[in-house]
Design a protein that fits this description.
With about 250 residues, the chain is α/β, with parallel strands linked by helices. The chain has seven helices and nine strands, in the order E-H-H-H-E-H-E-H-E-H-E-E-E-E-E-H. The chain has a domain of about 150 residues: Rossmann fold. The structure holds zinc ion. The site of zinc ion has 4 residues, from loops.
């Protein structure tokens, strides 16, 4: 059996240290709430946060990561451009990236998408119903036709992203908006999954279905094998040109 991918959970870890209402929900930080169920499922998991040296995303840390999970919101601008570019390069070389909720505006995600990644939003304690649009997709494994979160922030279309390669989930909100909430991409040799839920004031990352989706996404985004990308001039052909034309 293929070993489970090595996961690095990255969290900016600012709301939890500055806002008591968020600390009440995630006393050890969103990164720990994300890491614990993954570790319990057997994944090798580490965590990193914005205020660590190099944001915890050194060349060595990324070299030892198969799938990076990203949560950020209030401090996207504090992520150094050089480190955002490093994450982007690692994805192009094959590292998986799972971007959660407000990570839609993170530097690595915007670099990889090439669009504004903007959307509509509202904080009004709405029910979110997350419909499975691709029941055979590995990221939807083990889910029903839909699942619900009793209270979440609303994200609404139009979501300014490139058309996903595969759309796994669509969210409906009580106020009437809908949103593409589970989007798959490949960029270079890397796989990217954007998953919408996870506003910091709600206990979303304790939800069993949400935890299942994140674990499924980590498995799906894992590199299929060592990336061996090579480019450039090839003056010597693989076989003599014209040789195959002789009868
Ligand atoms: Zn939010």
């Amino acid at each position: 059996m293929t070993p489970l991918p090595r996961i690095l959970v990255w969290n900016e870890y600012r709301h939890e240290t500055q806002h008591p209402e968020v600390a009440a929900v995630y006393p050890d930080g969103i990164h720990q709430a994300l890491a614990r169920p993954l570790a319990a499922a057997g994944f090798p998991v580490r965590t990193a946060t914005l205020d660590q040296p190099e944001h915890g995303l050194s060349e060595a840390a990324l070299a030892g990561t198969d799938v990076l999970i990203w949560w950020g919101h209030m401090a996207h601008d504090e992520v150094q451009d050089e480190i955002a570019a490093r994450v982007q390069q690692r994805v192009l070389a094959g590292m998986g990236l799972v971007v959660l909720h407000s990570g839609h505006f993170s530097k690595p995600f915007k670099r990889l998408m090439g669009t504004s990644c903007d959307l509509k939003w509202r904080e009004a304690d709405e029910r979110e119903r997350i419909w499975v649009l691709a029941p055979g997709h590995p990221i939807a494994a083990g889910l029903g036709e839909y699942f619900e979160l009793p209270r979440e922030e609303m994200y609404g279309e139009f979501f300014d992203i490139p058309a996903p390669d595969e759309l796994v989930f669509m969210s409906w909100f009580q106020g009437g908006e809908v949103f593409r909430s589970g989007c798959c991409y490949t960029r270079g040799a890397g796989r990217i999954f954007y998953f919408r839920p996870g506003h910091e004031t709600y206990p979303t990352y304790y939800d069993a279905n949400v935890q299942r989706v994140i674990a499924n996404a980590a498995r799906w985004a894992a590199p299929a094998g060592p990336a061996r990308l090579s480019f450039g001039h090839r003056p010597i052909p693989i076989e003599p040109i014209g040789a195959g034309q002789e009868v």
